[in-house]
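Batch manifest line 677
LIGAND: NAP
JOB: complex structure
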Amino acid sequence: MTHPTYPHLLQPLDLGFTTLKNRVLMGSMHTGLEEIGDWERIATYYGDRAKGGAALIVTGGMSPNPEGGVFAGAAGLFTDKDIANHRIATDRVHENGGKIAMQILHAGRYAYNPNCVAPSPIKSPISPFPPKELDEAGIEKQIADFVTATMRAREAGYDGVEIMGSEGYFLNQFIVRHTNKRTDRWGGSYENRIRLAVEVVRRCREAVGPDFIIIYRLSMIDLVPDGSTFDEVIQLARAIEAAGATIINTGIGWHEARIPTIATSVPRRAFTWVTKKLMGHVSIPIITSNRINTPEVGENVLAEGCADMVSMARPFLADADFVAKAEAGLAAQIAPCIGCNQACLDHTFGGKTSTCLVNPRACYETELRYEPVAQSKTIAIVGAGPAGLATAIVAAERGHAVSIFDRAASIGGQLNMARKIPGKEEFDGLVDYYGSRIRALGIEMHLNTEADADMLAGFDEVVIATGVLPRDPGIPGQDGANVLNYIDVLRGGAKVGKRVAIIGAGGIGFDVAEYLTHEGESPAENLELWLREWGVTDPGEVRSGLAPEGPQPGAPAREVVLLQRKAQALGKGLGKTTGWIHRATLKMKGVEMVGGVNYEKIDADGLHVSTGEGRENPRLIPCDNVILCAGQVPDRSLADALIARGVTPHVIGGADVAAELDAKRAIDQGSRLAAGL
Ligand code: NAP
Ligand code: SF4
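JOB STATUS: finished
ARTIFACT:
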């Protein structure tokens, strides 16, 4: 039966030998779980997502051999024990009505491994290890290892494999001249360069027979110099189909590309137009991906004929029940992936297990459980920022009677400042989601209410999530009329002059700089503007999709100088996978970044700074306004008042520890507290 709201998204897909129950693929993500090797935890993670309605799940990348692992010791199907372990996960997915394919990921020169191999000995800019150039026998071994991995995947109960051919990994490295300088039958002409990818698919198909899903992930826009033209992409897709692939999945950009492809500032569905260019050129289904994070966006992408299926990866960390909720007409209750990368990719690249900023249970399903309570308690929560909201929702889901107090007129706390920054519009969705959950759970709201100790008397539990106050940097002249703090600017809408000095270059200093240099529509909400800003163009016109004129950012709205006292590059503490985007954005806007300063004083001329212990090199930074973004301190006033009256509240979020506080820690702390109340 056709679904009334999502007729395309929730339509089955007949693959001939098997049918997918809808058009939603849970895309591959490296979570680090396989390396930990707790297979009950892995099975629960995948099983929950199968239960939540994903038609086909693709695992994190599994190495076909040690030299191809993303790092030394990366997981793969190497032994009988590995096969038995993977079977625990595949069985769980099948018990929950889903299907699962194992991604085979050979990293080639991206492998963080001194034994890495590649078509040519050219070191990648994102790895310290120069790869060894493969000879004919070496190439044959790699193909054989792909085939072995495919056969073992079948033995482990997988419904298929995804052969990773995009994002600049091994097979992609053979395909483009950027990394393939060979002159033998694996290099030179395009036919030669795609020979390896095609041969891998052909031999894997030959080995497993016709009734096994083989997805090939194909780079449709490389975004690095000397990549493929779109005619070549079509040629490759046809060859991959002829070699026996069941489905073609979309890859966007190489990891070394200096263009963001999945971060929150990338417009939603920013690259589905690229996938659409392939539609009609092959007869197997095509999947599109990148920044699709609501059922509505997925539905529109399919209704517009951009693809036959959509891939969403991070949205399944944020909410395992994404599809089930869409199906049940509960889209507003889906915890949204805001594209922040803070708990998923940043963890992966920091060597930590992935989870999700909005859903701390992701990858921790067996440890962090929200069990119904035997005895309901009354719980007062003061503060409707991320810490308070997360606590409230989990506590109410478990069956407690929850009341929230906040002096503000609306929920969200600091999220309401984040959502003002161009490129952070996704925070809107998060605040809306919290609102929907509060209504659905019947949580009692007391907004515009300054809670005091009397009001909180009589509750079984009191949670203080009152957040933070701006730190007083104690700079002479900071009381002047030309000095503002970030709250005046982001919440109060204070008028800011054309020349600005920002004191403090943490997350908020960067945010304020982005806010003040920007004017007009946010590129995150206007695809054409965004593509121009980052220099992306039609790969049908220009090889790789790199605009010959390069990035064309809009003119900066203000002259901004961003400062910190530390004598190191600014932005070092920003997200591992997104910090470079913030730095590049500010560079494009001409922001001057100055580290290693002492703040001497502020006067009508501007900000006076010096350097070094001897306070040398005095410099005046002439400006109309100085904006204080010097960090934050806990707002514990209410907590202290309660303690003085003998009440012991739970203090969480910024009210607990403000240093390096962010929404990820606040939500995690609140959810974990509520799980135990
Ligand atoms: P922060 O990251 O701790 O940065 C505070 C800044 O103020 C630093 O640059 C620091 O640099 C400076 N500072 C500290 N003490 C100072 C003093 N006494 N006088 C002058 N300058 C001083 O804090 P934040 O920027 O307020 O951000 C708060 C939290 O929100 C962050 O931890 C962050 O996780 C989160 N956030 C994240 C993002 C993001 O992009 N992911 C965006 C916004 C906010 P020096 O000490 O070197 O001067
Ligand atoms: Fe999405 Fe951020 Fe969660 Fe990653 S951490 S899944 S980007 S919301």
